[in-house]
Amino acid sequence: MKSSFILSEVFGGLKRNFSMVLSVVLVTFVSLLFVGSAILLQMQIGGMKDYWYDRVQVAVFLCPPDSEAPTCAEGEVTEEQKESIRADLEGQDLAAYVDEVHFEDKEMAHRLFNEQFAGTSLEGSVPQDQMQESFRVKLVDAEQYEIINEYFSATAGVEEVVDQNKLLDQLFAIMNVATAIAVAIAAIMLLCAVLLIATTIRLSAFSRRRETGIMRLVGASNAFIQLPFVLEGVIAAALGAALAGAVLALVVHFGVAGWLQAQAAGFELVSVGDVLIVTPLLIGIGIIMAGVSSVITLRRYMKV
């Protein structure tokens, strides 16, 4: 009897305040959409770090014919200098830091360049004889790049040493900024959702003040009187959270796992499975947010 009465009160309140409830659903949807996007973006950053940091290398670029670097004063790197640099990389001095070394000649550099920019205006734009030779070094510890850089900083035939980790760090820093922006927008929208839920519950309680007054007179507890109002906010917020999860799943399925994954066929992007992991968290956030704001709002009202 009590449960049926509470449910009838809940659905009655949802019907009477449909426009406000719809506003709560939409604001919760938008705010949790940003929250979910931020979580998925962080999951993607973590996956990309695991993938790329295991594959990035230190590139020891050799002198091209027209370099102005002090170590290239004698012109293009000679065969003797190449062998000397290779011997240093594979020698005992760097054995504790260097895992693998392979040489990338002009032909290979040209082929890889065209593969990387296939289908763009850059494909075939650089002749093979203008490509730069290099040694690609995989380190035992990727953070020990400075050791290689310092070792070859004054070596004849070496134009520069480039750590690809630094390029990735810049990329991930940009992605982290995007995540921070999404979190900031989500926080603002969540605050709006909390205020809107509180307003909706207050108006709903005010419109039914006669019923709640009668219930109080017949001895109903505060918890029993408050529960229908709390459930109204919780249901609206849960619907908004579920809608956010559904939209994220559609975007990931058709946009990320569909089109974008085909463009980045080398590592895994976030999938619908990841969205299914995030969605219950979004629903939980929505329920807690609505429940807490409703209880705080009604606590003062019930004391009247």
UniProtKB/TrEMBL annotation:
It comes from Brevibacterium daeguense. Belongs to the ABC-4 integral membrane protein family. FtsX subfamily. Residues 56-161 form the FtsX extracellular domain. Pfam families: FtsX, FtsX_ECD. The lineage of its organism: Bacteria, Bacillati, Actinomycetota, Actinomycetes, Micrococcales. The gene is ftsX. It is found in: Cell membrane. This is Cell division protein FtsX. It is a multi-pass membrane protein. InterPro entries: ABC3_permease_C, FtsX, FtsX_actino, FtsX_ECD. Part of the ABC transporter FtsEX involved in cellular division.
